[in-house]
Specification:
The protein contains three helices and 46 strands. With 837 residues, the protein is mainly β.
Length: 837
């Protein structure tokens, strides 16, 4: 006998109604795959009947003040019946059905839904696949859907993201409970290849911007928890564009004597080349980037209770570059500079990453107090090679800005002529192996109004890093090497070191979530947990308590929920944090610490003139006290750490997210974040000088490199009313400039300058060429061999804005520095086609 899991959220929303009716509405999804179920029949004892639509949504009216029996049926799924207590006139009740296939011989279970984390953004990826993106990476969409997330300094060329004042290294990523790791040597968005998450394989995701539970690991900013699909039938897809291509295959097959002995598989392959985009950069040359990612996830149900899973990934990135020349102009209307550079040499980078994992999941069938056990083991390895030998002959000149002059735009003074020679032979090999055992049990009361969900886990991890660093820079200005010494040749900077590091970590955690429900009145969930970890390299033992309270009153006209959470969050250092600017490694480096408190609310409201469906407003306010910080500077996407616990700081801000269907059937999002993040270097007296001021004044705190006062991101969808197959997507981002300081002199006057504001609009048009439901109308259509077919036209950087990624620093013989901006890509048009089978 199969099981249907009915997730019942009794959200009573009182409305004014003339007729003596009440309304039941909700969604119908597959319990295993979480995909929407279409054409499920919902009927009531008073003979009202409806069906779920393409998205699994349904709505049905029932008599008020009467007991009603509601039933649901669908071919391939077990029927279910539920008794609904009398509802007042005009009340709307949300009942969501999660159905399980008839191949499972389990009993029907009915439970009420529990309150969800207010700030934990949960999304399916169907809508996200339409987002115009230049990177081909899933993380690029996070600033548009997640609270407090913004693009990093690499802009559209990078999928790195910052969350609430933290940098990219402070974010956790999980795929099916496996922790995901990243390359270490990448220094620019041009080098960045394909990240691990493959959007063709993703079922749904959860994202927390801070204050997350103890079951998640030790990072200070955020956690992205991704779940891959659990396919029940064979499907595939192929996509092509000017920026690369992708393909995937999914399906299931019975292998064994029993119906539950199923093998499920997901296979995905991606290829990316951003050569088309790099052709718009200031530096002209021969760009040859090639990025490939192949991964698979396979599960097999050994018994009804035991499942084995295998995940594997191979990622190859190669970036070859032969620069030829560059010409960049900057300045004001009365003072302008032009940097002209001619290059010799080349850059050759290679990043090869692999990951393999095994999981065993045991969920014994129990009538009460269900329990699960999960064992995970994985190994990640990377081989990173960075080689460049580039000689640049530069000329920095002031140009004539007098539009009434005959020689406007011509040079009037040469400020610097010289040579900049950059050389590197850097090699890094690292492996990360871990074993993780986790478990959980739900203690249920007979009335199901309150229960405890206890989870615990233990994890062992081994890290090995073998690094060989050989990098130097020589600057020659007007025939003199800088820094100048008449007796010898001194290089501007030299990094030369060999480091072999091994570290062992042990982590344990336990947490309990207590949920109390008072029908028609309130829901309350209190979660408390604690993490403990030991890091062998620094002999450091950490204890991290975390807690969260969620409260939702019931029986209101509009659904609202409140959140208060916080805790102590540590971030043990990885190799990049430990490596000092001179290449030596600080093995005694301690973990960074964040004391985090966050409060927020979630509110569903109706905007009847726009849509009949509710909009959701999520807002959170937070404060973080930061201690034992490892200070750093950001150059493009490269984070250069000091390698010392040399700073303290604070972060505070406000995040607001609104999402809903501004156009019926097309969901849109808007995120607004206000942020202030400050730091103070130990034993440094910071100074600041306002523009035009002669004297400096002391500053207690200075901006951190991720201090972005305001960030606004929007994703909007629309379609032609006369032809819904033609859709339009707008991706809009604007953020205030990030701070930076003088190169090699950024301590006392720290981060006193800011880049220009980042603003960008990406526009996409999509036309559905074919849908299999058209077969009867168009039996000879050339695309009839596919399930769906889409053709998309994307315009990246519609306004052709010159956003800045970093600076090139040019010195004169007097050691005066000029910051020449390195701009990101300009306007480009991309054509994309996608076939689903």
């Amino acid at each position: 006998m199969s099981r249907i899991y009915l997730c019942l959220s009794f959200l009573l929303i009182s409305t004014v109604s003339i007729a003596q009716k009440a309304t039941i509405f909700g969604t119908v999804t597959d319990y295993d795959t979480r995909e929407s179920i279409e054409l499920a029949t919902i009927f009531t004892s008073n003979s009202n009947v409806t069906e779920s639509d393409l998205k699994g949504l349904y709505r049905i009216e029932v008599p008020s003040e009467e007991e009603v029996i509601i039933s649901i049926s669908r071919v391939g799924y077990q029927d279910a019946t539920l008794k609904i207590q009398p509802m007042p006139s005009g009340v709307k009740r949300n009942i969501n059905f999660k159905m399980v296939s008839t191949t499972n011989n389990l009993e029907i279970v009915i439970t009420e839904s529990k309150i969800e984390d207010v700030g934990m953004v949960r999304e399916e990826v169907v809508e996200l696949k339409q987002l115009p993106t230049t990177t081909g990476n899933f993380e690029s969409v996070l600033p548009h859907i997640a609270l407090g997330a913004s693009s990093g300094q690499g802009g559209e060329l990078s999928s790195q993201y910052n969350v609430r004042g933290g940098n990219y290294d402070e974010n956790l990523v999980y795929v099916n409970d496996f922790e995901i790791f990243r390359p270490q040597l990448i220094r620019s968005g041009q080098q960045e290849g394909l990240t691990f998450p493959n959007i063709d394989l993703i079922r749904d995701l959860s994202f927390s911007s801070g204050g997350f539970e103890a079951k998640y690991g030790d990072k200070m900013s955020s956690v992205l928890d991704i779940r891959y699909k659990r396919p029940e039938e064979t499907k595939s897809s192929v996509g092509l564009s000017f920026l690369g291509g992708s393909a995937h295959l999914e399906g299931s097959k019975r292998i064994g004597a029993n119906a539950f002995n199923k093998l499920r598989y997901l296979v995905g392959a991606r290829y990316k080349t951003n050569r088309y985009l790099l052709g718009t950069l200031d530096t002209e040359g021969e760009y040859t980037p090639n990025f490939t990612d192949i991964q698979a996830y396979v599960t097999y149900d050994i018994t009804k209770d035991l499942q084995i899973g295998l995940i594997g990934n191979y990622n190859y990135s190669q970036y070859d570059f032969r620069p030829v020349s560059r010409s960049t102009a900057l300045g004001l209307i009365d003072f302008a500079l032009r940097l002209t550079t001619v290059y010799e040499g080349q850059e050759q980078d290679q990043f090869v990453n692999g990951m393999g994992g095994l999981s065993l999941t045991y969920v014994p069938e129990k009538d009460k107090n269900p329990i699960y056990w999960k064992l995970l083991a994985s190994r990640y390895s990377s081989n990173e090679i960075e080689k460049f030998d580039i000689l640049g002959f530069y000329r920095l000149a002031q140009v004539n800005t007098d539009f009434g002059s005959d020689n406007v735009g011509e040079e009037v003074a040469v400020l610097g002529v010289g040579t900049q020679h950059n050389f590197a032979r850097n090699y890094l090999f690292n492996t990360i192996s871990n074993v993780h055992l986790k478990s959980g049990i739900e203690f249920q009361n007979d009335d199901n109004d309150n229960n405890h969900f206890v989870q615990w886990g233990v994890k062992y991890q081994n890290e090995t890093i073998d690094d060989e660093l050989n990098e130097w820079e020589r600057i020659d200005s007007a025939g003199y090497s800088l820094p100048y010494d008449p007796n010898q040749l001194i290089l501007n900077s030299v990094l030369k070191s060999t480091n072999l590091i091994e570290n062992n970590k042990l982590e344990v955690y336990a947490q309990d979530s207590y949920t109390y429900t008072k029908p028609e009145s309130m829901e309350l969930r209190v979660t408390g947990g604690i993490r403990g970890s030991y890091r062998g390299l620094s002999k450091e033992f950490l204890v991290s308590p975390r807690a969260e309270i969620l409260f939702k009153p019931l029986g209101r006209k509009r659904e609202i929920a409140f959140k208060l959470g916080g805790g102590l969050y540590y971030q043990p250092p990885f190799y990049r944090e430990m490596r000092r600017l001179d290449g030596t490694v600080n093995t005694d480096l301690k973990s960074q610490k964040s004391i985090h408190i966050v409060g927020g609310l979630s509110y569903d409201f109706y905007w009847e003139t726009i849509s009949k469906k509710p909009f959701k407003l999520i807002t959170e306010i937070y404060f973080k006290k930061l201690e034992n910080l490892v200070s750093y500077e950001v150059d493009n996407v490269r984070i250069r750490y000091s390698g010392e616990n040399d700073a303290t700081g604070t972060a505070m801000g406000l995040d607001i997210r609104i999402n809903g269907e501004f156009v019926p059937g097309a969901e849109s999002w808007m995120n607004l974040s206000l942020l202030s993040v400050r730091e103070s270097l130990n034993d440094v007296k910071h100074l600041r000088r306002e523009i035009g001021a002669m004297e400096s004044e002391e500053a207690d705190k200075v901006p951190r490199p991720t201090d972005r006062l305001m960030n606004l991101s929007m994703f909007f969808q629309d379609y032609l009313p006369s032809n819904k197959n033609f859709k339009m997507h707008v991706n809009f981002s604007v953020g205030t400039g990030l701070p930076f300081g003088l190169k090699d002199n950024n301590e006392v006057y720290r981060n006193t300058y800011r880049f220009k504001a980042y603003h960008r609009v990406d526009l996409g048009f999509a036309y559905q060429l074919w849908d299999s439901t058209w077969k009867n109308k168009k039996p000879r259509h050339p695309m009839r061999f596919t399930e769906k077919a889409w053709l998309s036209l994307e315009v990246f950087n519609l306004m052709d804005v010159l956003n800045q990624a970093s600076n090139t620093w040019v010195k004169t013989i007097t050691n005066q520095q000029f910051a020449i901006p390195n701009y990101l890509s300009s306007r480009r048009i991309n054509l994309r086609v996608k076939f689903d089978f």
